[in-house]
Specification:
single chain; 367 residues; alpha/beta; Aminopeptidase; seven-stranded mixed sheet; 12 helices; binds zinc ion
Length: 367
């Protein structure tokens, strides 16, 4: 189709291109599309939406959901996967009692502006906490923070930041370092992995979309697509449901034992994350048993990703364009959306297969 807005590798160059390709594919596949418009706009004044496409039985009791863009810029991959899957037939004919839901750009501001965070520098995946009891300032983060706020984006400043991070890690250990660096903090609005002071627009919008998106569902398998952790171009799973819970059991049935082995991790120790979106779904959808997982597509090794996080915190504090800003922005984008055609092809291949796997498990459940 001549109006097809994606590059031949299936990835969009802008949020608006990603959205129009997604909407086109959803309409062609017979999806029922709804959405909520964000109050802000993109860098070129473009409209920002959280979109939902629903396929199948409106009265379904069993639903499979694939969401993307919780971390803004990481939505380039998730959107490409969703669109490619729909264009390859997608959910197709679904038996009575089942439905598939695709959620596009949970954080459309970050997607359009090429950042992981929201308009308020909030890591949406640290924002789903109870703000009546905000976590106390984290001593480790308090210590690291001044070292993470670079004054200039140059190699000397970056090396000083890493020296401070390494010193902290050596003294406090890998786990304490991860908790401090990226577990989530609620004290420094300009800082890294900031969880905010209130529910972000994206959190409220998702909560508003859920009743219609899930309908009368009683069981839901949910996949939230991300990039940045795990083996290059390959999926890496996170499941936070307790062993023995229905959610964990169902995730095992659908995704297999290997999905939870931790093989291919790019982290020596994962932080105890606070305020994850998938951890809040059960409370947001009472009456529906949830089996949520995060699926990451690995990009680069952890140090390079940490550089990207430092770059974003620096970029957000710049008021003027500069050569250093352009360099930091390019490095940042490459960290979360590698331009390497092999990476992109692998993400599409693996991502589409995972969508199909989730869909097949849904269908098998009611047969
Ligand atoms: Zn992410």
């Amino acid at each position: 189709m001549s109006s097809f807005p994606l590059a031949p590798d299936g990835f969009a160059a802008t949020y608006t291109e990603a959205r129009s390709a997604w909407l086109q594919a959803a309409a062609a596949g017979g999806g029922r599309v709804s959405g909520l418009q964000h109050p802000d706009v993109g860098p070129r004044g473009e409209a920002l939406w959280l979109d939902v496409a629903r396929f199948g039985d409106p009265q379904a009791h069993s639903v499979f959901v694939v969401s993307c863009g919780t971390h803004g810029i990481e939505g380039y991959a998730g959107s490409a996967v969703q669109t490619a899957w729909m264009n390859a037939g997608g959910p197709g004919e679904l038996p009575t009692g089942t439905a598939v839901v695709l959620v596009h750009a949970i954080n459309p501001w970050g997607f359009a502006h090429g950042q992981r965070v929201t308009e308020n520098n909030v890591d949406l995946n640290r924002n789903f906490i109870d703000f009546a009891s905000i976590p106390a300032p984290h001593a480790g983060y308090t210590e690291l923070h001044p070292h993470l706020m670079l004054e200039h984006w140059d190699e000397a400043a970056i090396a000083r930041a890493f020296a401070a991070m390494d010193a902290y890690r050596e003294r406090a250990g890998e786990q304490a370092f991860s908790d401090a660096f990226n577990g989530g903090q609620y004290q420094s609005p300009e800082g890294l992995f900031y969880g905010g002071r209130q529910p972000e627009w994206s959190r409220r919008a998702l909560a508003r979309c859920l009743p219609e998106a899930l309908g009368p569902a009683r069981r839901c398998v949910w996949v939230d697509l991300h990039t940045g952790i795990g083996p290059y171009g390959l999926p890496f799973f996170f499941s936070f449901d307790a062993p023995g819970s229905w959610g964990r059991q169902r995730a095992r049935e659908v995704w297999g034992e290997n999905a939870f082995s931790g093989k291919g991790s790019t982290h020596k120790a994962f932080a105890v994350y606070q305020g994850l979106m998938i951890g809040a779904l059960a409370a947001m959808a009472p009456g529906c048993a949830m089996s949520p997982v995060v699926i990451e597509f690995g990009t680069h090794e952890r140090r390079r990703m940490q550089r990207a996080h430092l770059a974003l915190a620096w970029m957000r504090r710049q008021r003027m364009a500069s050569e250093a800003f352009e360099r930091a922005a390019a490095e940042y984008r490459e960290a979360f959306v590698p331009s390497d055609p092999r990476w992109r092809a692998s993400v599409l291949r693996e991502g589409v297969a995972l969508c199909q796997r989730g869909r097949d498990a849904l269908v098998a459940e009611v047969r």
